[in-house]
Amino acid sequence: MSHKVGFYIYDEFQTVDLAGPLDAFAVANDLLAPKVGYELVTLTNETLPVRSESGLQTLADDNVANCRGLHTLVIVGGRGCQSVINNAQHLAQLRQLAGSCQRIVSICTGAFIVAAMWPERTLKLSTHWDFADKLAAQFPNVIVESQKLFVQSEEVFSSGGLTAGIDLALSLVAQDHSMALAQKVAQYMVMYVRRSGDQRQYSSLLSAQQTLSHRFQDSIEFIQSNIDKPLSLELLAEQAALSPRHFRRVFKDKVGLAPMRFVLLLRLEKAKNLLCNSELSVAQISVLTGFGTPPLLTRKFSQEYGVTPTQFRENFTLEI
Length: 320
What we know:
With 320 residues, the chain is an alpha/beta fold. It contains 14 helices and 11 strands. The protein has helices spanning 15-31, 81-85, 88-98, 110-117, 132-138, 164-176, 179-188, 214-225, 233-239, 244-255, 259-277, 282-288, 294-305, 309-315, and strands spanning 3-8, 38-44, 50-51, 57-58, 62-63, 72-75, 103-107, 124-125, 143-144, 150-153, 156-159. Strand 8, helix 5 and strand 9 form a beta-alpha-beta unit.
């Protein structure tokens, strides 16, 4: 049977929160028989057109109060979500509609609307990392999973910022149909399919760069640019125009990790991304990440994550 998926939009919604997941389901439709595909509709509380943050004007297909037969309700994010939260009638209409749905999905800051719909529920929700603290402060019952791309909490699915909504949509396509179909959709959309909910919205290692001096920002950029090459403490210190001892002490003080430990974790992070998002062999990945040979990559990878690169790749799916 086909699934009816409704996308809830409002004034100042985020365009990509609608367009990305909507296109993922639409591409799936192109690959499915009509009887088992998705019926896709947009929903608003009013009958008037709504305008996105970027100025795109959209006339919805249906009204929230009138919608029937919805399987999945997708609540997109955007600057206007607070206006929805402040409107008791709109929240009541959404709660009533959600009560008849099998799945509730929030994209990015749409998590704020979901939290406001059920303020007494203890839900795990993901949202854009920059809004995580605000979500936790505004809704104390919510367990905020800000580092994950997407999470499931009972019938509620939520994604992080912007393109993470596409990752969640692909995961739902895989649940509804098959991993193979999700793979084909991702290929058609020219994106990686194997980003699971456990992946971070951003690199916790590279985020340290934002608060460093230019000298150490340059050091991290040097490491990134030469991650496939032999790197030593002496080479990094020379690049920073410091003695090895001084460089090691100051780098650890500023970044929180010893330089060579940072290099190792950055190499392993790149290896994980390549294992998930490419068809490269473990031998090729060993070279591209500076380990040189598969045995060294396998040993370091197993020490850090408890599984071999091959096991990690085999077990890495779109499952939440």
